[in-house]
Design goal:
Elements: E1 13-14, E2 20-21, E3 31-38, E4 43-58, E5 65-69, E6 77-88, E7 96-101, E8 104-110, E9 118-128, E10 135-139, E11 146-156
Antiparallel strand pairs: 1-2, 3-4, 4-11, 5-10, 6-9, 6-11, 7-8, 7-10
Length: about 160
């Protein structure tokens, strides 16, 4: 299957004079884009395209893990979702998961405290990180026989 999906996107805009404007655009299947109406030129256009990302990981038993979206020069990562699950025996209570802008903590939430439990934090609006910095989701060790699973999603622009 092709990595790039060509989608015929027909955007119709009816103006006072009855003129219809249509535009075809090749779109990446995991892109986020904005539609902008230009009232001066009476056109509807795609203004920007952002590449989305998803970083996932599973730890080994009783081991901390860090999920990292590598830094991109001059671009910011926008975090939309951070999820952590624990499986195995009952995890240690009071474990704090840290979302970091490079090494600086920007958000913190408690890891689940039950076997098979999960916690997801939705950032709406997305949490913008500093341009040129990596995004890190730091998940502490959960205790004997506990494996953590994590997901970090967002987009970069």
């Amino acid at each position: 299957m092709k990595k790039l999906l060509t989608l015929l996107l027909v955007l119709a805009c009816v103006v006072a004079a009855g003129v219809v404007v249509a535009q075809a655009q090749a779109i990446h299947p995991t892109a986020i884009f904005n539609l902008v109406f230009d009232s001066v030129g009476n056109t509807l256009r795609i203004s920007e395209e952002y590449a989305t990302f998803g970083v996932t990981g599973d730890s080994t038993a009783n081991t901390a893990q860090t999920l990292t979206k590598a830094a991109q020069a001059g671009k910011s990562h926008y975090i939309t979702l951070a999820c952590v699950g624990m499986r195995g025996t009952a995890p240690t209570a009071g474990l704090d998961v840290s979302l970091q802008d490079a090494a600086a903590e920007v958000a913190q939430f408690e890891a689940p405290t039950t076997n098979g439990g999960g916690v997801c934090v939705n950032f709406n609006p997305p949490l913008k990180l500093t341009a040129g910095n990596a995004a890190n989701l730091v998940i502490p060790a959960g205790g004997a026989s506990v494996v953590s699973v994590g997901t970090l999603t967002g987009f970069t622009k």
